[in-house]
Design goal:
single chain; about 280 residues; alpha+beta; Alpha-Beta Plaits; Multidrug efflux transporter AcrB transmembrane fold; 2 domains
Length: about 280
């Protein structure tokens, strides 16, 4: 948690943003070209020569392990008509077989103002969702320490996942923010399961209750991880792939946060509670 928060702080200090924004959040152009013979590194190098100040990424698109084409993103000012036209001319001249009609059909532009508006709106939704989740947890357990343990686990899942995506250089799109929203639910379910088993069940030792919860919780996580892995391998949509990648990272992080951090906190809490009851 400490290392992740340090990475996020460093990211903010260097870039002004706590995560790496994609074109849909900071504005620019995205184009998909369905030609498996294209080499993304060569295209990226050519574009970098023409637009040295722009952030450019060319990545391959694939389905079931087979390359289907490439996707190019560039954060140029879409309000600058000359710059946008220059970008189109470079692609038409460098990519054989690419027609003007095909280029226009597969090209998407987002203004910086619109991208910033999207980011603020989705980030507010993330905060509101987290706050409502916290209120429901407090209402259900009516106990400070277990509730804070669940909330801390959910917070850490998001914070650590953001730090990992930053380190991996994943550029977060609007869909990616949706992935973080979904991660709140995916991370909290195992924590609620664990806390319910430990606090609401009276028979058996605390450690036995934890292991019973772990048996169910790990099965939940493993089945979801399997489904996400299949989705990442077979989906054609970069947005869906990003959502599933974020969830995959978040669920792997959640294994540690739930079964080490949260379980440890609950064991200490129950030990102190039982000790005070005996006294």
């Amino acid at each position: 948690m400490v290392l992740s928060l340090a990475q996020i702080a460093l990211q903010y200090n260097q870039t002004g943003d706590f995560l790496t924004k994609g074109v849909s959040l900071k504005g620019g152009i995205t184009i998909k070209i369905t030609d498996p013979s294209l080499h993304e590194n060569e295209i990226e190098q050519v574009l970098q020569e023409h637009f040295p100040k722009s952030d450019i990424e060319a990545r391959s698109l694939s389905s079931a392990g087979t390359k289907t084409g490439i996707e190019i993103t560039i954060d140029i000012d879409v309000n600058n008509a000359d710059q946008v036209q220059e970008f189109k001319d470079v692609l038409l001249s460098e990519i054989p077989g690419l027609t003007k009609d095909s280029l226009e059909d597969n090209l998407q532009t987002i203004s910086p103002k619109l991208g910033d508006s999207f980011f603020k709106a989705t980030f507010k939704a993330l905060i509101v969702a987290f706050l409502f989740m916290a209120l429901i947890v407090f209402y259900y357990f009516r106990s400070l320490v277990p509730s804070l343990a669940v909330i801390l686990s959910a917070f850490n899942d998001i914070a650590v996942t953001i730090a990992i995506t930053n380190l991996l250089g994943i550029k977060i799109s609007i869909a990616g923010i949706g992935g973080f929203l979904m991660l709140i639910g995916y991370s909290v379910d195992t924590d609620i399961l664990l806390a319910t088993k430990v606090l609401k069940t009276t028979h058996g030792k605390v450690i036995d209750r934890i292991f019973r919860a772990m048996k169910t919780g790990l099965m939940m996580s493993i089945t979801t991880l399997a489904a996400l892995t299949v989705g990442i391998l077979f989906t054609l949509s970069p947005d869906i792939k990003q959502i599933m990648t974020i969830l995959l990272i978040g669920l792997l992080v959640d294994l540690t946060m739930t079964w080490f951090q949260n379980a440890g906190i609950l064991r200490i809490y129950m030990a102190k509670k039982n000790k005070s009851t005996e006294q």
